[in-house]
Amino acid sequence: MDGVKASLVFVGMLVVGLLVSVTSGLSPPTIVSNEEEFVLQPNSVFNISCTGKRNVVWTEPLPKNTFVYPGYYTATLFIYNATVENTGYYMCTYQTQEGDLEDEPEEDNEAGIYVFVPDALAPFVPETPENLVVPMETDGVPISCRVSDPNSHVTLRSVPSGEDMSAFYDHKMGFFGSLSPGQYQCETSVNGHSIRSVIYTVETEVPAEMDNFDVEVKASEETVRAGQSFNITCVAPIGLDFQQQWLHPKKQAMGAVQIKDTSLDGVIYTLSIPKATSQDSGSYECSVTHIISGEVRVSSVAVTVFEENSFVAVDHSGIQTSEFVSLLEETEYTILINAYPNPKVSWLKDGKAMPQTYYIFTKTSHLEGNRYQSILTLRQPLVKDNGNYTITAISGSRTAHFSFTLKVKAPTAMMFPTILGPCAAATGGGDGGAPPHSFHLDLSGRG
């Protein structure tokens, strides 16, 4: 019996294998007609059947004025009151069955016909919006202007020049050829009158990473003494699709040298002024255009050239004339200084020299070239630190200063819940216990 069982199992597997082989090797469906193209008159009725080795269907979507009548391994397509919108392909394929791996029908398992419905009032088939903008491809560009009459002669023209373009034309597909970015329109003739299609736009697809790019501009010195040299650098993205341009008044950078270098971070454009004059003062802009998308980025920097032997300027950007800080919250105030020669920097509080302590101190350092910075640090600001703070920078015969008022926010009960909470809870003893200790919390000074 074991031998019989084994034989039956083998035979069963063989039968299943044969069934799978036959199913996967189905011949394509058959259109019940010797024709592949049909020319229908407007408002006419048309029907055609498709058969196969199993159930077949007409591929959707189908026009609204169509109907499919299914049968045993057959499906009949009906078109009622044909219009120009019925012009197109109609494909018949096998119905998807449970267990099929392919969601899309293979070309070998489908059959099709093409229907024309000539209409003198609509020589071009109405176009779908997604076909009006066409991405440019290196191997060719499709312009899908299809005609309703297979005998129409069609010309492709450039807009607005009207130039006749050379491209292959198929009445069922439209034009296909090597086209440059721009706008195009199809043209045909009906009863001696020229009729034009909608306008198609060919665009070069812009990579997503090119939709957004940055341009960075820096000056080697923002404050320069006459006779000194300085450079303006602009960092732009790498690529042939980017075009850079310096923008500044003609009087500026008249003797400048332009340099272009490429690094891993981008393309570095340098405007080098070997000997600055007062006319070189002003704003320098770097404009970078992405040629394909038309996106433009502009960044700028300002440079001041002093004729005198000394100069000094302070930059307090971000610091207001009145500043508020939280109690005990460490805070820093940074002042940038442009000066030549080296500046002498001092800080005053309420008009008096400010002592340097662990809790409050200043530090001045040289950054590069004529740039310096001075930082005022308050480690644990208290109410006693309220006052007017003034920074003074002296360079040669030049002086610059900036003042601001500092106010430390007064403490609240919410700031010290662990200290004030127990005190509030320890009220007088109705139970005979010891009365609570009273104390005073002084945050006005460090003692």
What does this structure look like?
The N and C termini lie far apart (106 Å). A hairpin with a 2-residue loop joins strand 31 and strand 32. The protein folds into 4 domains: 24-116, Sandwich (Immunoglobulin-like); 129-203, Immunoglobulin-like, CATH 2.60.40; 212-306, Immunoglobulins (Immunoglobulin-like, Sandwich); 311-408, Sandwich (Immunoglobulin-like), CATH 2.60.40.10. Strands 25-32-31-27-28 form a 5-stranded mixed beta sheet, with no helix packed on it. The radius of gyration is 42 Å and the shape is elongated. It is mainly beta. Mean pLDDT is 84; it is low at 1-23, 418-430 and 432-441. The protein is 7% helix and 44% strand. It holds the Pfam family Ig_3. Keywords: Immunoglobulin domain, Signal.
In a nutshell, what does this entry contain?
By secondary structure, the chain is mainly beta.
